[in-house]
Amino acid sequence: MRGSMAEPLGDSPSSDDASGAAAEGQAAAAPADGAAAPAPEVEESIPEPKKAAQPTHFTFENSVFKVKEAVFTLSPTTGDPTYNVPLGEVRAALPIDLVAGSFGVPKDSQDAELLKIVKRGLKYVKEIRPGDSIPSELLDGSASWTVEPHHRELAKARVALQFAWSQEGKALDSVDRAEYEHLAALPDNQKKLQDAYVTIAEKLGFGREHKGELIGRGDELAREWTYIEALRDRFGKIQKLYAGFATLRPIYKRERAIQEDIIRIRALMKRPVEEITTMFEQLEANTGEIVNTMKKFPSQIRYIRDTRDGLHQKFMIWDGLIAEWADVVLERSLKVDRLVRVSYRFLAHHFPLDSEWALQNY
Predict the structure, then answer these.
(1) Quick one: how far is CA 317 from the chain centroid?
(2) Where are the domains of the chain?
(3) Which tens digit of pLDDT belongs to each residue from 135-147?
(4) pTM of the model
(5) Of 20, 102, 122, 325, whose CB has the highest number of CB atoms within 10 Å?
């Protein structure tokens, strides 16, 4: 479930100050000539949570879905949703549509609707068991997977720097991501942060007395960006593996078969690594200007969530391979030999190149 980040990005007004500011805003009269005050130059509200459709759990009625240890997963060969059930000492993987037709699940039944949700839900989780809760991405748009506390702190610092540096046009890519928290805590940047709240609130039409609404949007942005920081770390493991194969290539220079597999692996990894890199770069480019993000807040949050889900779905494919390589020493060994072969089969299946020519010319 999502972590809580109730505390604001910087020193925000106390509840008494906020109440006073709100009272002042309510007391402020319309312009003397009787004209209405100009509306803020922003999308009117943050995204409303999606209504949690019923049901919220995979509570099936047909007895076929009450088999002990049954589970829905994606087929490792076709990627299609399947229903896995134990049959003695083996497991049978049945396509979901075949299950519905073979076991008399009416098309207009609750079970049929749940099977449709299972298909969508497997984009966000690796397995679904009857009785599980429906992934929160399908209920209210929030992420169903967890993040670490340092991801939350990193996201808060990032957004604080976006505000603080907005008036001088300094970009976040000018500093290392590891420096965000230190830089955000500097007194000079804290002052710039508070000044930016007032300046941007006035620029967007909130008025300085209502800067609390802007601070709230900043907090919400940081909550959403927490998952992007976690995804960066997951991508870092893929990048480390990609670099690791470059390290292994000269180590296996006298074993032609293994070295050729490593060359092919590097060629097969190049495109997905570049695609993911581009996704992060586009996300940064489209959300880096904090004034624009605050102005178009609902659509920007939707965009961040869509990118989050897209990246998460890509990384779920890699999780098993990354786990196998965890803590493996990059040296000639039977274990590395095996993992090289495993990696080549994985990549050739999931990320085949268009032609053998591309492999030969890598």
Answers:
(1) 14
(2) 63-138, 227-360
(3) 999 999 999 999 9
(4) 0.80
(5) 122
